[in-house]
Design brief:
Layout: E1 10-14, E2 23-27, E3 32-38, H1 42-46, E4 55-63, E5 66-74, H2 77-87, E6 91-99, H3 106-123, E7 127-128, H4 141-160, E8 186-190, E9 195-202, E10 205-208, E11 213-215, H5 226-237, E12 241-243, E13 247-250, E14 254-256, H6 259-267, H7 273-276, E15 278-279, H8 286-295
Parallel strand pairs: 5-7
Antiparallel strand pairs: 1-2, 2-3, 3-6, 4-5, 4-6, 8-9, 8-15, 9-10, 10-14, 11-13, 12-13
């Protein structure tokens, strides 16, 4: 995913006046229209005009195995969601992506579906019910460029709706670091397990640096550890973490959404990253360093 340049204004409309309820999202100058529909508000959401347009959709829910998702496309998204309401019982939220003017056609939707499934599988944040990646439809170069631009904006909008299955923490080594020199590096060390690594802040990301040494396999046994264990296993599977005989080594920089997520993967167990990560040089915990910044 390419990085967005410049600021963007996202307009969220809480249809019910409830931040967890029916919601629409639009960006000025973007043709896309996103609707988030809790399953308990399905009829009201599917009755919206844009829900009956051509587009793609994402079903999200929780199972005993963890978070689960499904991605599809349809010429009438609302009609397809009604079918899924009868045939799939695990999902709790539907995300509908169409356009206000119904300007997407079937080939556009199939291209978007293929790209979304491909991205979600590469990230591995949720268990995706889709089997193979659908083939991309045949579009001319102009249409492909338009769909890439459409996706770039969509990938900016979805995290604002707490839809994170397309966000990868992998970092391009050639990308300039906006905060370089502005924040210290942080170090985490667990000597008894031979764990040692460094990290830095990049905007809202906590980035563990290449060559950091983490636990070889997940060791936590708590019933609420599943999310971090899944992340650790996925980083091994995708080659971000390279397993040696005794440990796992970060073969590239990787961005986490919190110091605790980074500390959990490093230690192979749940961890309070705000305490375990310490500023290089001063030895202050991340929490102490942050408190000092706020005091200034």
């Amino acid at each position: 995913m390419g990085a967005m340049t410049g600021g963007r204004s996202l307009e969220l409309f809480f249809v019910d006046g409830d931040p967890d309820g029916l919601l629409t999202a639009e960006v000025f100058g973007w043709t896309g229209h996103v609707i988030r529909i809790p399953r308990l508000r399905l009829k009201a959401g599917l009755d919206m005009r844009e829900a009956n347009h051509t587009g793609v959709y994402i079903l999200l829910g929780q199972t005993d195995a963890g978070p689960k998702g499904y991605i599809g496309e349809a010429e009438s998204v609302a009609k397809r969601i009604r079918d899924h309401d009868a045939s799939r019982d695990w999902w709790e939220t539907a995300i509908l992506v169409t356009t206000s003017a119904d300007s997407l056609h079937k080939a556009h939707a199939k291209y978007l579906e293929s790209r979304l499934v491909e991205q979600a599988k590469s990230v591995g944040a949720v268990l995706l019910e889709n089997g193979n990646i659908p083939p991309r439809s045949s579009l001319n170069r102009a249409a492909v460029a338009n769909m890439k631009s459409f996706l770039e904006m969509l990938f900016m909008v979805l995290p604002a709706l707490n839809v994170n299955l397309f966000q990868s923490g992998r970092r391009d080594a050639t990308r300039p670091t906006e905060t370089a020199g502005e924040t210290p590096e942080f170090m985490l060390a667990t000597p008894k397990n031979g764990i040692e690594g460094r990290a830095r802040l990049e905007g809202s990301d906590f980035v563990v640096l290449k060559d950091s040494i983490a636990r070889r396999a997940w060791a936590g046994k708590g019933e609420h550890d599943f999310g971090y264990r899944l992340l650790h296993d996925k980083l091994v599977e995708t080659g971000v973490l390279r397993q040696t005989e005794t440990h796992a080594v970060f073969d590239e920089d990787y961005a986490f959404n919190s110091p605790s997520a980074a500390a959990a993967v490093m230690n192979g167990r749940p961890a309070n990253g705000r305490i375990e990560w310490k500023a290089v040089g001063s030895g202050k915990t991340f929490a102490e360093w942050e408190e000092e910044q706020l005091a200034r």
